[in-house]
Amino acid sequence: MKKYWNIGIVFFALFFSESGFSQVVYKEVKAKIEVKEIENLLAITGTVENLKSEFKNISYKLTVFKKSKSGSNKSNNGQDGRVTLEPIQKVELSKTQVNFTKEDEIIILLLIYDENNAIIGKDRVVFGDEKESDSGKAIPQDGIEMIGIVANDTKTKLGNDFYDYFYSQYSKLKINTSKIVTVQEELTFGRTTKITILVDGEIIEEFISRPDEDFLKYMADTAASKAFKYFKDLEKQSKIITQY
Asked: Residue 19, Cα to own-chain centre: how many angstroms?
């Protein structure tokens, strides 16, 4: 069965200041993207290191998002899989290559999930952004914070259609967050699927899909509204904590 791979990025990259978003520190595993530049080619390897002295079952998604600076061409490709990590072990997860010119902007994103599909590791590298360093190398991950990421983890055309509707509504809300929103699809009984919208592994909405365009659009609008409320509640909580 075809698995749809896409990552929507509402805003491409943002340098953060003291008032910006702080990075999450992951303590279970360390995700790392290794990149070698060979003329006009980027050789990409996704790796993960188990930081704990115990076995750990993980899944991963390595995605390359590419667009021309003129905005005329966009493409992305992704690879995923599952691995059992031994204690204090570092392994290569996946390798890929992508052509790269001065006219391209590229984001490479590696996400690591635990057995409950919660994100426990993350790394990203940017090439070709206007804020790129003078040396022309990738911006260090400590120097950027990507916002507005919506990952597509659907498996059917129906699920992918819902993703498109949801992403369209979500983008209009202009939610500035470093958290990753994921549209996930699982097979259920018969020919139906369950679609779940998560924020960094936390369920925001889930429902059983059906081949009805109006229904999918309604659920996309509902899910986007719930995501907006979720982030607004987080913002209020953050302000309360800051006050005290």
From this structure: 23
Do the domains at 24-131 and 143-239 have one common CATH topology?
no
What CA–CA distance (Å, rounded) separates 230 from 235?
A: 9
Tell which CATH architecture fits domain 24-131: Sandwich (2.60)
Quick: pLDDT tens for 50-61: 999 999 999 998
Q: 218: part of which helix (H) or strand (E)?
A: helix 213-243
148: its two tokens: 């507005």
Relative orientation angle of helices 213-243 and 157-172, to the nearest 10 degrees: 50
Task: State pLDDT tens for residues 12-32.
Answer: 333 333 333 345 678 899 999
49 half-sphere exposure, CB direction, 13 A CA radius: 9
d(CA 63, CA 191): 28
pLDDT at position 1 is: 53
Neighbours of 158 (CB within 10 A): 20
Sheet holding 104-113, edge to edge: 74-85, 56-68, 104-113, 119-127
Was domain 143-239 assigned CATH 1.10.150?
Answer: no
Residues (pLDDT < 70) of the chain are: 1-24, 69-74, 129-148, 239-244
Predicted TM-score of the model (pTM): 0.60
Domains of the chain by residue range: 24-131, 143-239
> In this predicted structure, what is the pLDDT of residue 10?
47
Pairing of strands 147-154, 29-38: unpaired
